[in-house]
Design the sequence.
């Protein structure tokens, strides 16, 4: 009887697996082949100067490899900064006046937050529950004329393709280490980080803001190399051993050499 139950359980599992593979759904993954409705605007100028810095904690987007292929997200998409680093594919739809014919799609990375304005009753695109992308101007004008101001779009989550390894920028003070993660491939958005000194066990870090992760464990001035375990939103985890050497300093950036 037990073997019969095991047989039927295996058949059910295989059927579910086939269904999953045939529909393109991945367990634990936020990457989604379906398209969803939203709107898009732009901020900053054509040089992208107004898009630098921002609520994800990224600094010079050119130096960090994001360039102008970026967007700020509305509250409904931002997820308190945990969506920072995620990549999206966007197309202009249902607006023949402004959508550029045969423009195709753009692919962008979330690097900032479009804050809500609860004092307004119109043009509340970044207020909940609106799904909205505030693109860099160069990205917006690939889809529509800048005079459009705002356009209807469809979007979907896609995998991020990044050059080089995951980057770790170490900031903070002797009592508090703050690590900014950027240039993350795969799902792109980091959901968990652990840090390990060469004299400690693995220590979970907490999200401080954007993609800045913190620990209050003292690791400064003890001659310890630093290693990291990074988990992205689809559940994949990479371990980066001895990323920072024993003589690491604040404000330094270290290359994990690998990506998702």
Sequence:
């Amino acid at each position: 009887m037990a073997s019969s139950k095991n047989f039927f359980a295996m058949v059910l599992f295989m059927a579910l697996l086939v269904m999953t593979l045939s529909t393109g759904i991945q367990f634990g993954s936020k990457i989604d082949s379906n398209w969803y409705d939203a709107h898009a605007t732009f901020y900053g100028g054509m040089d992208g100067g107004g898009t630098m810095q921002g609520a994800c904690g990224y600094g010079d987007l050119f130096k960090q490899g994001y360039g102008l292929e970026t967007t700020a997200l509305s509250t409904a998409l931002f997820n308190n900064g945990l969506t920072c680093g995620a990549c999206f594919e966007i197309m202009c739809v249902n607006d023949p006046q402004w959508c550029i014919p045969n423009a195709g799609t753009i692919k962008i990375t979330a690097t900032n937050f479009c804050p809500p304005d609860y004092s307004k009753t119109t043009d509340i695109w970044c207020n909940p529950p609106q799904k909205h992308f505030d693109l860099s101007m160069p990205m917006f004008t690939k889809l529509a004329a800048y005079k459009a101001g705002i356009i209807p779009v469809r979007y979907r989550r896609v995998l991020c393709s990044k050059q080089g390894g995951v980057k770790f920028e170490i900031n903070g003070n002797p009592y508090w280490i703050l690590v900014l993660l950027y240039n993350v491939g795969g799902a792109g958005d980091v959901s968990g980080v652990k840090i390990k000194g060469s004299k400690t066990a693995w220590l979970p870090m907490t999200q401080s803001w954007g993609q800045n992760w913190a620990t209050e464990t003292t690791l400064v001035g003890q001659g310890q190399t630093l290693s990291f375990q990074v988990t992205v939103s689809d559940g994949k985890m990479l371990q980066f051993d001895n990323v920072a050497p024993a003589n690491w300093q604040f404000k330094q950036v270290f290359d994990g050499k690998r990506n998702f």
